Amino acid sequence: MKILMVVHGFPPDSEGGAERVAFFQARELVKHHQVVVLHRVNRSIQPEYELREEVSEGFRRISINNTFKERPNFHWLYRNPKIDDILKTILNDVRPDIVHIHHLTGLSTGLVLIAKEFGAKIVLTIHDFWMLCPRGQRLKTDLTWCQIIDEVQCGECVAGWMIPPIAGKQRLPEGVRRFTSPIRTGMASWLGKTKRHTVVEAIRERNREIMMVLEGVDLLTAPSRFMRDSFIEAGVSENHIIRVPNGMDIGLFAEDPPFIPPCNSRGENRQLRIGYLGSLIPSKGVHLLIEACAKLPKDKFTLDIYGEAVSYDGFPHYEKDLKVLSNGSLDSTDNIRFHGRYSNQEVGKILSTLDMVVLPSLWQENAPLTIEEAFLAKVPVIAAGWGGMKERLAEGGGMLFEPGSVDSLANTLRHLIKHPKVLESLENSIPKVASAEELAPVWEEIYQELLAVK
Asked: Which pLDDT tens digit goes with each residue over 88-135?
């Protein structure tokens, strides 16, 4: 088979969950099929829409640079006619039997119609809420969960995105850029309040485009029952979407010497070694974790935070705020340490130094790879009790706390400090993790069944 895999980023440029899942999958499928990966990059020093190609891990990688600096309107955020033209050229070159889309952010929803014109079968894996929520995580600008997705609420959240970017802004002095930000904020507020109809109509247009995508693909998949159910509730037919778990690279966790789970060697008086791994963005709730740890005796725990801050709408100084929150300064404390960016190859080593991993997410995550990585390293997980996190930990291997509650998380951590043996029981209940290798035949069967339908 000729398989074109499409994703909004790809390692090593971007190492989010969807990106790594696509990478693991491509690396397995290329053993028996022709695989081409098409992905977006965001490089301000590179010409807009420049294509670059390389071969690695046995498959071709084609990247499209899109920094959104040539965006005349909101529509181009999801359906970009210039990228559509590029996609036609790529599809004509690759001529895939299967187009497997992992994410379209930064690319173009036009890919679905273009792929159908070339006769390819299309699979779309749902990794987050981007198809239902322009912000991707169903979080409002005040970081509260959006219970009901509606056009008016969406318009209020993304009114600022209706304003085209300022040409050449990145080349302006920092002081000038700071001056332009309040102007854009004011314009966004004005749009949201006085041009509501215009903003809502733009959201409706996006929703119509997204429904075309959801109905146009041959099959939707989701790695959690929670996400599958969410899209069925949004109007997707039950027969059109199936659950397929994420496949992991288990090789990183099979090195010698074997892992010795930290909790097995804990004594009554040892500090609880708490860890966080992931992006430092507000939706991940890292500030909530720091606030919860502030309620614990300082001599009873350490908190190691791994990850880097990435741009997040409305929160340009989040990493700085976290460091101030942890100590009232920008320095790490003796028991709260910031380690910065880490590579996928380092995850096993990092996890071997922790008693647990905490996922304090403020949004209902789908199927976080951090949980699977912790399970592969035999490290228990403490997570906010909703979404795919709640679903996964229902199988064992961790504990849940009330989402968004500092006190609930603090109480959970305090319980583990007082009762360290609980960690051993959690470790013993860790469920099996699916590997990308064992899921490759599952995907092959799915593709073959789609190709058999004329």
From this structure: 999 999 999 999 999 999 999 999 999 999 999 999 999 999 999 999
Check the CA dihedral 64-367-313-196 and report its sign. Answer: positive
154: which residues sit within 8 A by CB, 6+ positions away? 133, 134, 203
Q: How confident is the model at residue 167 (pLDDT cuts 50, 70, 90)?
A: low
Asked if 42 and 375 count as a contact pair (C-beta separation under 8 A), the reply is: no
- What percent of the chain has a predicted confidence (pLDDT) above 90? 70
Which of the pair, 329 or 405, is modelled with greater confidence? Answer: 405
* DSSP letter assigned to residue 251: G
34-41 and 59-65 beta bridge pairing: parallel
**3-class SS of residue 65:** strand
Cα-to-chain-centroid distance, residue 243: 18
- Asked whether the beta carbons of 301 and 274 are under 8 A apart, the reply is yes
Burial 16-33 (b: 16+ CB within 10 A, else e): bbbbbbbbbbbbbbbeeb
The answer on 270 and 238 residing in a single domain is no
pTM of the complete model: 0.90
Same domain, yes or no: 216 and 274: no
d(CA 313, CA 322) in angstroms, rounded, equals 16
Quote the CA–CA distance of 277 and 96 in Å, as a whole number. Answer: 36
Q: Please check whether residue 189 lies inside any domain of the structure.
A: yes
Omega into 72 within 30° of 0, i.e. cis?
no
Sign, Cα dihedral of 383, 104, 451, 234? positive
257-294 burial, b at 16+ Cβ within 10 Å, e below that, comes to eebebbbeebeeeeebbbbbbbbbbbbbbbbbbbbbbe
Q: Are residues 254 and 242 in the same domain?
A: no
| In a domain? residue 147 | no
Query: Domain range spanning residue 86?
Result: 2-137+206-247+435-452
Confidence at residue 193, expressed as pLDDT on a 0 to 100 scale: 54
At 237, which amino acid appears?
S
Q: For helices 421-428 and 406-418, what crossing angle results, to 10°? A: 100
Locate all alpha helices (DSSP H) within 195-317, ordered by sequence: 196-216, 225-233, 286-293
Q: Which of the given ranges, 53-57, 95-99, 253-257, has the highest pLDDT on average?
A: 95-99
How big, in percent rounded to 5, are the helix, strand and coil portions of the chain?
45, 15, 40
Residue 331 one-letter amino acid: D
Q: Which of 13, 30, 121 is nearest to 437 (CA)?
A: 30
**Over residues 343-352, mean pLDDT:** 89
User: What single string gives the DSSP state of each residue in 93-146?
Assistant: HH--SEEEES--TTS-TTHHHHHHHTT-EEEEE--SSTTT-TTSS-B-TTS-B-
